[in-house]
């Protein structure tokens, strides 16, 4: 192991000693030496299996058969989750063949940031993660279950399922992906058409045609945004079957992997004699492995908050500085859009997860001897799944990348740095994703233009008021102010200005999409404006220095001048009403800072 990574991990273990010990004691107290339903009264149990068939009722009456919970984010509007429609029947049959019973325990909401970008509903997006965690907890609270299968893919769904899974850490848990859609219009071409539309060069019909050619079928979007970053993180933590993340939906291989995942869940229960609860399986080293893989692939900045949140649910304390320090130790090994031209299917064709695991292990970048749902050791994840005469098998991965423009080696990486940096200065602390930035755009010193809504920037752009060097300061977007909506719709506008030769950047207490990266953006700024952060005192015309090389983010205004300024006040009107936002006030008020996971479920 690379000593730098070992040292960072040791710091995390030491920092988490008390909370981790309390967590492990909690899940030890929650486990059962027999089936969990044995603690139920006859009336409880009768309710629990009332709708089951005769055979399942017979099995659930006894104490020798495991009951596996199915928790699904299925809905048929969202392409990534539509394939899950058929999974419950497939899983139930596979679990029955393995000698157990599977019951559909809970359906959880799944919203798509792609649908809600720039819309009022986006204000609910981050908070939906906590709703998903609570919804999962409600489903698992019946104490019927000895293990769980989690069906979810996209932005907030997987982190929500992970928070709940760690909370019910005494249960063995397997995550079941559904896979990416086939490649459509290349992501770079889609981005080009978006910029053309922003400049008025193409109409909405042409834009919709391009978007429809990109997002065109069932499956996950093919760029390396938050959804696919989720899948990578889950597999690296050993919660998927090896190679399961990026197999296409509606294929025989995908179905066989789903059956195998269902069977594997039964092999980890107390009744199997091979008990491995998720709360013990995922430890500090597993979380570090997840961060390392995220950094090595240039994954979504959204995961900085999500990993902090689900790790905390397991008693493990992670912070922004850990990401920064690990990024210094981890080379960039992949180029997947927005960090390159390839999509996730081309990554898969170049060698995919198996080859990535091989590089990470041989390079001493991950802890190999961690527990997984398949047993101890990540080396088994260097194999890829195939069908051999209809039988699911795992074979050795390719010896080297089949496309070295997509997957590099530790010996010759795309960059020696993982591409994520913590920004610090008098404005506070934030993160910036540098892996997809040109070197010439890493440093900008320019006057601020202050906006309190992303639509104000659109208006200024349309009026031709932004034809100059500037730093867009978009404030009152943080967790407590707005629920931290993504500001991805700003990317085409700022990209157009960047292409015209202007030096532009973004500073915000909000967040950007996992697919963003062309424009330097210091995001997740803490403290946020509504908490009195200095961003609430910035005036248009103030000079800001953003240095992505050194991690400096400074408002270049005299301290005496700043002390004399009033703190801008958040204009609540129009932001907390409509599209269901009025229902989330209690949650919004209790969201922690981005650096502590932007979570309403734990004490800050």
From TrEMBL:
Residues 406-598 form the Dihydroxy-acid/6-phosphogluconate dehydratase C-terminal domain. One of its GO terms (molecular function) is metal ion binding. It comes from the Bacteria. Its cofactor is [4Fe-4S] cluster. Pfam families: ILV_EDD_C, ILVD_EDD_N. Keywords: 4Fe-4S, Carbohydrate metabolism, Gluconate utilization, Iron, Iron-sulfur, Lyase, Magnesium, Metal-binding. Residues 68-379 form the Dihydroxy-acid/6-phosphogluconate dehydratase N-terminal domain. Its EC number is 4.2.1.12. It catalyses: 6-phospho-D-gluconate = 2-dehydro-3-deoxy-6-phospho-D-gluconate + H2O. Pathway: Carbohydrate metabolism; Entner-Doudoroff pathway. GO terms for cellular component: cytosol. The keyword Kinase does not apply. GO terms for biological process: D-gluconate metabolic process; Entner-Doudoroff pathway through 6-phosphogluconate. Binds 1 [4Fe-4S] cluster. [4Fe-4S] cluster binds at residues 154, 221. Catalyzes the dehydration of 6-phospho-D-gluconate to 2-dehydro-3-deoxy-6-phospho-D-gluconate. NCBIfam families: edd. Belongs to the IlvD/Edd family. This is Phosphogluconate dehydratase. It comes from Colwellia psychrerythraea.
């Amino acid at each position: 192991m690379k000593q730098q990574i070992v040292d960072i991990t040791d710091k995390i273990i030491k920092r988490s000693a008390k909370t981790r010990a309390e967590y492990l004691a909690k899940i030890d107290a929650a486990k059962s030496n027999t089936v969990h339903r044995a603690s139920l009264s006859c009336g409880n149990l009768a309710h629990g299996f009332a709708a089951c068939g005769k055979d399942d009722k017979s099995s659930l009456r006894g104490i020798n058969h495991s009951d596996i919970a199915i928790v699904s984010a299925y809905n048929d509007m969202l392409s990534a989750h539509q394939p899950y429609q058929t999974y419950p029947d497939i899983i139930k049959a596979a679990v029955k063949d393995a000698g157990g019973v599977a019951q559909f325990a809970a359906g959880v909401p799944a919203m798509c940031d792609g649908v809600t970008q720039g819309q009022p509903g986006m204000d609910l997006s981050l908070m939906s993660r906590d709703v998903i965690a609570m919804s999962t907890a409600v489903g698992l609270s019946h104490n019927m279950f000895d293990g769980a299968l989690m069906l979810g893919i996209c932005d907030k769904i997987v982190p929500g399922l992970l928070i709940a899974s760690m909370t019910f850490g005494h249960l063995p848990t397997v995550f079941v992906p559904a896979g990416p859609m086939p490649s459509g219009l290349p992501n770079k071409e889609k981005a080009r058409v978006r910029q053309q539309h922003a400049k008025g060069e193409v109409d909405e019909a042409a834009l919709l045609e391009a978007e429809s050619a990109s997002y065109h079928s069932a499956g996950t979007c093919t760029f390396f945004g938050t959804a696919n970053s989720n899948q990578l993180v889950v597999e690296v933590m050993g919660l998927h079957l090896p190679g399961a993340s990026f197999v296409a939906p509606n294929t025989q291989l995908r179905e066989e992997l789903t059956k195998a995942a269902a069977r594997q869940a039964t092999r980890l229960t107390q009744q199997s004699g091979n008990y491995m609860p998720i709360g013990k399986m995922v430890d500090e080293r597993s979380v570090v492995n997840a961060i390392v893989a995220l950094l090595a692939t240039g994954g979504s900045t959204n995961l900085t908050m999500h990993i902090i949140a689900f790790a905390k649910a397991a008693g493990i304390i992670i912070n922004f500085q850990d990401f920064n320090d690990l990024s210094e130790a981890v080379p960039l090994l992949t180029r997947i859009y927005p960090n390159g031209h390839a999509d996730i299917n081309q990554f898969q064709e170049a060698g995919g997860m198996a080859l990535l695991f091989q590089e990470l292990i041989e390079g001493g970048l991950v802890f190999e001897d961690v527990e997984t749902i398949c047993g101890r050791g990540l080396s088994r994840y260097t194999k890829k799944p195939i069908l051999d005469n209809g039988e699911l098998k795992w074979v050795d991965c390719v010896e080297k990348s089949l496309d070295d423009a997509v997957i590099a080696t530790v010996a010759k990486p795309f960059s020696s740095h993982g591409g994520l940096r913590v920004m610090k200065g008098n404005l506070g602390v934030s993160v910036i994703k540098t892996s997809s930035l040109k070197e010439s755009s890493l440093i900008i010193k320019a006057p601020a233009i202050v906006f309190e809504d992303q639509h104000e920037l659109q208006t200024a752009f349309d009026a031709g008021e932004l034809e100059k060097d500037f730093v867009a300061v978009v404030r009152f977007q943080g967790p407590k102010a707005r629920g931290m909506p993504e500001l991805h719709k700003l990317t085409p506008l700022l990209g157009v200005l960047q292409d015209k030769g202007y030096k532009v950047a973004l500073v915000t207490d909000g967040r950007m999409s996992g697919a963003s990266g062309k424009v330097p953006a210091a995001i997740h700024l803490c403290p946020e404006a509504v908490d009195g952060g200095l961003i609430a005192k910035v005036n248009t015309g103030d000079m800001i220095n953003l240095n992505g090389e050194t991690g400096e983010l400074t408002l270049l205004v005299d301290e005496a001048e700043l002390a004399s300024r009033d703190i801008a006040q958040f204009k609540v009107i129009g932001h907390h009403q409509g599209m269901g936002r009025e229902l989330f006030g209690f949650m919004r008020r209790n969201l922690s800072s981005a650096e502590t996971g932007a979570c309403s479920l734990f004490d800050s």
